Amino acid sequence: MDQSQSGTNGIGQRLRELRQKRGLNQQDLASADISVSYVSLIETGKRIPSEAVLKTLAERVGCSVDYLRSGRDDRRVKELELKIAFGDMALRNGANGEALQSFSEALAHAPLLGEAAVRRARLGQATAFEKLGRMEAAIQLYSTLFDDPAVVPGSAEWAQLAVALCRSYRDAGDYTLSVEIGERAMKTLDGLGLDYTDDHIQLGSTLISCYQNRGDLTQAQLLINRLTRVADENGSRTARGAVYWNAAMVANTRGKFQESLAMIERALALMAESDNARHLALLKLNCGNYLLDTGTTDLGKVQKLLDEAREGLLESGNSTDQVHVDGQQARLALHQGDPDRAADLASRALGLLRNESTHTAGQIRLFLAQAQYERGDPKEAEETLHALVRQLGRVATNRNLAVVWRQVGDLWRQLGHPGEALAAYDRALGEAGLQPLDKLAHAAVTTV
């Protein structure tokens, strides 16, 4: 019986696509009961195969009879949806590599999935890339999802993606673009005239951290003042905790250590009942860090906080989180008078960083140099500082870097190298935005 391709409901087209995808020719599908010419007629839509022929052909191209007949394979679809669900669960449990594999395997069969399932898998894949520290891949996927016309500005999905993009550019070190994305998204929400939601507050909280990293402390404080009022009136405990968390970081950057400690403790209290184990662990890590900033003598409390942070992040964190834990543990060991342990912890953290050039890597290398000096190895400390100076020269300018340069200068001075110390102090002033006298004089002449 002659039939058009549409009359066969796409059987021939699907058969041809699967055969070609698997590198088979029509002869490979033929058998004693199915001639090559009959295969050709089926593929061109001129014959409708019987159930027995359909079963044979499906086996040879590696699909189900249901898929060959209708383009859907409910059994296979359910298997793929289970892979996506497993990926979501793996992300929650900190098994980011397993999550990425599950999402990628599901997306390899994207044509079998509905649009919502595909978007869910792609978001999961992007999140896994981010947690694994593969920021370029994460940003590319988040951008594709965010720019999809199906994503409605102001919706929960849109806000979630805006936060993810803002956060990812920040963590990749592109503070300017992270701020631009955050400001644009906040302006869009304000223009829509929507009531503040937790998503809105979370976006603002992320933008605060971007301002802080870029050194825009005034802008950060203005947004803190605005969000604190809104969060206290309308936000959930988690949303309020996020605002106080970022407010604590800004206060710490301003040198208001007691204020930053009070805010981080308030954030921890607000988010104590949260089911986000990673956030709770990071809050404890920050709380321990800020306690050290205040000059506390209660090092046992700091140790307890950092140990709890380590335990939580081993289960739910990523490699970057482990670096921060090891770094703060090394700092604590220096306060405890144990330079050998500090050196071991700093070396382990640097091993996880794999020669990355960031202010975090610089800070940890500084802890290592300090530990080497305190245990009586000044030559090792000098070599580590020289390596640190070369490393810091490759880091993009930001306020956090100024702090590291200042501390580098202090250690050079302890080692008896005033010239190197002066050069480091000069770099610290430059990173903080203070220009040398000759440039200031030139600027004054040109602006008259």
UniProtKB/TrEMBL annotation:
SMART domains assigned: HTH_XRE, TPR
Assigned keywords, A-Z: DNA-binding
Coiled-coil regions, chain positions: none
The HTH cro/C1-type domain, residue ranges: 15-68
A GO term, aspect molecular function: DNA-binding transcription factor activity
Top-level taxonomic group: Bacteria
One Gene Ontology term, aspect cellular component: cytosol
InterPro entries, sorted: Cro/C1-type_HTH, Lambda_DNA-bd_dom_sf, TPR-like_helical_dom_sf, TPR_rpt, TransReg_Diox_bact_type
Entry protein name: Helix-turn-helix domain-containing protein
Organism expressing this protein natively: Kitasatospora acidiphila
